[in-house]
Amino acid sequence: MRLHRLDITAFGPFGTTQKIDFDELSAAGLFLLHGPTGAGKTSVLDAVCYALYGAVPGARQSGQGLTLRSDHASPATRTEIRLELTVAGRRLEITRQPPWARPKKRGTGTTTEKAQSFLREYEGPAGSWKDLSRSHQEIGEEITQLLGMSREQFCQVVLLPQGDFARFLRADAEARGKLLGRLFDTHRFAEVERRLTERRRAAEAQVRDGDAALLADAHRMQQAAGDIAEVPLPDLAPGDPGLAEAVLAWAAVARGTARERLTLAHSAVSAAESAQAAADRVLDDVREVARLQRRFTEARERATRLEERSDSHREAQTRMERGRKAEAVAPALDLRDAGEAEHRRALMAEAHARAALPASFADAGAPRLAAPPARRAPGGAAAARGPPPERGGLASARRAERRLGELTEERAGLDRQERADEDVLQDAESWLATWETTRAGLRARIETAQEAATRAEQLAVRRDPARARLRAARERDQLARDTDDAHEQALASRAHATDTRARWLDLKEERLKGIAAELAAGLVDGDPCAVCGATEHPAPARKIAGHVDRETEERALAVHQRADEKATEDERRLGVVREALAAASAEAGDTPTDRLAEQEAELEREHGEARAAASGLHAARERLAQAELEHERRVAARQKAELRAAARVSHRDTLDRERTLLEQELTQARGAADSVAARAAQLERRAALLTEAADAVRAAEDAAQRLKDADARLADAAFRAGFSTPQAAAAALLDDAAHRELQRRLDAWQSEEAAVRAVLAEADTTAAAQRPAVDLPAAEHSAESAARRLRDASSARDAADRRCAELDRLSARATTSVRRLGPLREEYDRVARMAGLAAGTSAENERKMRLESYVLAARLEQVAAAATARLQRMSSGRYTLVHSDDRAGRGRSGLGLHVVDAWTGRERDTATLSGGETFFASLALALGLADVVTDEAGGVRLDTLFIDEGFGSLDDQTLDEVLDVLDSLRERDRSVGIVSHVADLRRRVHAQLEVVKGRTGSVVRQRGVQD
Known about the structure:
The protein is of the alpha+beta class. Helices cover 67% and strands 9% of the residues. It is built from 29 helices and 17 strands. The strands form four sheets. The chain has a six-stranded antiparallel beta sheet. The chain has a six-stranded mixed beta sheet with strand order 10-14-15-3-16-17, sandwiched between helices. Helix 9 crosses helix 22, helix 14 (394-433) runs antiparallel to helix 19 and helix 26 (851-874) crosses helix 27. It starts with a strand and ends with a strand.
């Protein structure tokens, strides 16, 4: 940067326009800016700074620029600074007009005009100036970019304030840090420290949140473990070192203990199952023995009752035997009765016949009443009549034939009963043969259903978290898409807001350019102008085509405001969506939604299958109960069938004996006929023919004879049957009803006796009866106790299984959390280490040096090295500036500055330098700082420098050495302006710019080398 020309008007102490030609002053390389105190030497430098940056050095900047106006200037003269310079190969002209209160053109008082700035560039080929900008902001950004320095850096590098550097030499580390921070713009390193601290806090918060979730899982595991936890949960808080390892170690111990308890529970269940099986077997044996003992007791009681009724049974047997014997006499009785009846009828017929006979035959005997010879023949009436005993036995044969039919039907009924009982026994045996398999299968179904119910409960516990994670994952995916959409919308809205603002600013600038025409539209002849106050308006401004009025500008402003509000709302919505996405991501984790959906579907499928399998538990139990009832019914049916079979054997024998007797009797009674009835019909027909052929006498005689014969046969039959008299045989004869009732009683007795003998003959029943009476309630109580112990053991095993599953699940989640927290912990450790190093609080940072201080220390070291090259020449090689990173008291290290005295060989603090030594040391430091800042600014060449005050503290020799150093700057084609009121410098430096003060303001006088 090289200054060419500076025009100052109504600025500071200068009431009129002052022109300074820096090209002429810089021709000698070294020029003097001098004048009495208060004349305005520093104001010249302020004018240069104001022209470049729109502001004077910080200590003199106040208000809005109104205090920059000279009090000596006339009211109508506007304050203006115009600076012409070359920077980065471009020749520019900067004009600055600060705001000023000018008199109103009409009326009294003043009106404030706004500040204005103009930037032009000289185009060599065209030989003219080109307007570049009239915007304060654009001009400031352009100059700052070209110079590569801020206003603070420029004031320290180009306008070297020696008093500041003297204070810099004596200042502490904090004060030096503030100055160097402004010069080298190291706030970005402070921002890095702040960002590292924020990242450390954020990472620490994430780690603490993860540790809190891990501790929550640990407490859940402790709750799930219950009283089996032998080691207490580690007493650590979120963020404590070793928390994850301690929780995982505790979880491993808890899982191991839980598995040991589960193994013990399985052993206990096995032992309880064995004990229950043994108790069930004992109970079955006791029940069987008790049943057999009851069966034997009942059989003995039945035998006793039979014994008590034995007399009546013998009487019934005797009566049945007499009845059967009487049945042998029955035909004779019937025959005797029939003969007697026939005899009476014959007598009546004889009387009737004799009554009907002619008198000659009335008293005729048999010979006379005999049939004629022609009608007599072998096989005639007498032969046809047959013997009386045969005719008398037909009634008994008929009864025997009826009884034989009943016996045949009864025997067929017994056969049907036998076949039915055989079917019952076969069905019972077939069913009972599969009973054990059926019962085992039903019990297996019950156990399977119980296991399925337990698994369904476990799967239900796992299904709800899986559903929650799936919902969160779906919400996370949707929010991710919403975030992308919101981000694009926010970018588009912000871009639109920027475009509308640029449009509004363009319209506003266009309106300001034509504001005169807008104001002129409201002018009325005779009324004062709002701008100049004149009442005459000879040439008011006219609106040009495309003029922007206030309404257009306000519409553009409204559009911009709406666009800005929309952009703000879109950005706020983006933040809300991002927060929701972070929450959903924290809940769902990084697992893809498809994978979570598959896991949830798998859990749902397994849960449905388990519930379906468990739904058959009640039906299986009912089926088992029905099967046990059916088993009891089948056993009872088999026993009854066996009893009926034993009773049928005796009854069948009785029937067979009776049938044999009846068949013999009927065979004898039928003779050659097919049946007894046929035989009887044949005899009756013969008797009828004989009766028709014989006469009453012969019939009566025959009847009488037959009656006599019947009495003889009856007596003989009764005797043979064992009866003393026929009357006794008749009394012993039984009718059919009495015979059946007596036979039923005898059969029942025989069946009961056979059944009792069968029971008493059973080996197992007899063996059970010989054993002591069993204690069935005790056996049932033992079996129930064994079942209860099995249920308790199963419940304990299920609880242990659920505990293991829950601990495994929580441990897996804790392991996943620890694995997920691993990168966060590493990030936190790394960021915390970097933040501690950057902030100077880490133990690794031995000198407690902050990052900004470290950077400034490097810059200070460069400045000290650059300043030493000049300080050695100024001090004849005596002094050298060195940087020190030792700590000063309790402060931080890194910004110490010492001077090495070559005469003594010792290093001491710069605060121990004398006034003159302090001046040339600070001058050397300022020049070194200018070189370093120039390099830092991108190598922008600074061809014009100003050094303010401090030369009065030097002796002649030191002054010559300092001037030699300054004069050496010309070797770099630089010009150096010395600001001083030391008289000796006016003799030594020929190019001078003198500031003369007066009552009407200060003026400048310039003298070049030729003068």
